[in-house]
Amino acid sequence: MLSDEDLIRAALSAAAAADPRDVPVGAVVFDASGRELARAANAREATGDPTAHAEILALRRAAQVHGDGWRLTGATLAVTLEPCTMCAGALVLARVDRLVFGAWEPKTGAVGSLWDVVRDRRLNHRPQVRGGVLESACAATLDTFFRTHRP
Ligand SMILES: [Zn+2]
């Protein structure tokens, strides 16, 4: 069985495949047995799509191969950065079982930093969450990008 660190390492490799113009965030979806269903990198610049966050793209692709329609029951999503409100909402809608993420995002994070969208007790589906996995490696990827792109 893959460790959470293994899952984040896969997400880091997905991030590394991002278009050089895009903030390198990567997401990977695994099924309950640990099989990789889909991976994606943030592609907002590459696609001109404001919703093309890594998590959204990976969830869409995973649902195509998971075999339970739009429901990603039993799935785990690993992402290098704490999800925003849109992606946190999408995780709940997709019925993802678990979320593992790397770096915290104090400016926009919606899984504990600014909001906690996925664990709101009013929701009937609440994914389990573990944040801060390989946090420094994930943060370093972003720091490098912003140092070279937005000095
Ligand atoms: Zn997002």
Automatic annotation (TrEMBL):
Check the record and name the SUPFAM superfamilies matching this protein.
Cytidine deaminase-like
Q: What catalytic activity does the UniProt entry give for this protein?
A: adenosine(34) in tRNA + H2O + H(+) = inosine(34) in tRNA + NH4(+)
**Class of the enzyme per the UniProt entry, highest EC level:** hydrolase
Q: Name one GO biological process term.
A: tRNA wobble adenosine to inosine editing
Q: Which InterPro entries match?
A: APOBEC/CMP_deaminase_Zn-bd, CMP_dCMP_dom, Cytidine_deaminase-like, tRNA_aden_deaminase
Active-site residues (renumbered)? E55 (proton donor)
Among its keywords, does the record have Aminoacyl-tRNA synthetase?
no
Q: What does this protein do?
A: Catalyzes the deamination of adenosine to inosine at the wobble position 34 of tRNA(Arg2).
User: What family is reported?
Assistant: Belongs to the cytidine and deoxycytidylate deaminase family. ADAT2 subfamily.
Tell me the protein's name.
tRNA-specific adenosine deaminase
Q: Which organism is it from?
A: Nocardia pulmonis
Which gene is annotated as encoding this protein in its UniProt record? tadA
